[in-house]
From TrEMBL:
Annotated HAMAP family: Transcrip_reg_TACO1
Cytoplasm listed as a keyword: yes
Protein's name in the database: Probable transcriptional regulatory protein OIN59_20330
Superkingdom to which the source organism belongs: Bacteria
Domain (TACO1/YebC-like second and third): residue spans on this chain: 78-233
Organism whose genome encodes this protein: Acidovorax benzenivorans
Record-linked InterPro entries: Integrase-like_N, TACO1_YebC-like_2nd/3rd_dom, TACO1_YebC_N, Transcrip_reg_TACO1-like, Transcrip_reg_TACO1-like_dom3, YebC-like
TACO1/YebC-like N-terminal domain mapped to chain residues: 5-70
Keywords, comma-separated and alphabetical: Cytoplasm, DNA-binding, Transcription, Transcription regulation
UniProt subcellular location: Cytoplasm
Gene Ontology molecular-function annotations: DNA binding
Lineage: Bacteria, Pseudomonadati, Pseudomonadota, Betaproteobacteria, Burkholderiales
Family: Belongs to the TACO1 family.
Amino acid sequence: MGAQWKAKGKAQVADAKGKLFGKLVKEITVAARGGADPASNARLRLVVEQARKASMPKDTLERAIKKGSGTGADAVNYERVIYEGFAPHQVAVMVECLTDNVNRTAPEMRVLFRKGQLGTSGSVAWDFNHVGMIEAEPATPDADPELAAIEAGAQDFEAGDEEGTTTFWTDPTDLDLVSRALPANGFTVLSAKLGYKPKNPVNPANLTAEQLEEVENFLAAIDSNDDVQNVFVSLGG
């Protein structure tokens, strides 16, 4: 399952593109606070590249940059908020939200966590490492992920969630640097973001099929909230 939970199933996949665009628009808007020019704003450049790879329309992309940089008529201010707690069966969860109204989001999270346990700030963060997460695919048949990780300066790597992809883990401050270096070492970057990697993930084999389904249903409900950007879960692959 990996550090970042991703919905599975036909219904989720069918809705995935629209939801992805919505999340990317928020990320672009927040990143654009640091400047509207991707060339001088590394954070914006990374998410703009991801939006282009997802085939986001140019006008949607430009409108999001204007919103965040304050140059558009409909400027908006999103706040990044992390909610921590447990899914059923004591599986630790960190939920990253981007919201324009915390007074709306907070009670919604309390309701969604009723089948689990909503914790206070820091209650589960200690069991996660804050990392850079780069999803990439080989640009050539002989691309070696171990060599690429070493040459590009990544801390570690593992098989990605999608077949044929590799997840490279970096120090948060090295995310942009490694993202720029990977193409020269045989890998095409699909996405790059900051996230959370569990230190002691729960082995899914230790849960029954019914328990695992309860965890999946809980995570799906959390992820369906419009303010949720990412869900990081302490559950092994």
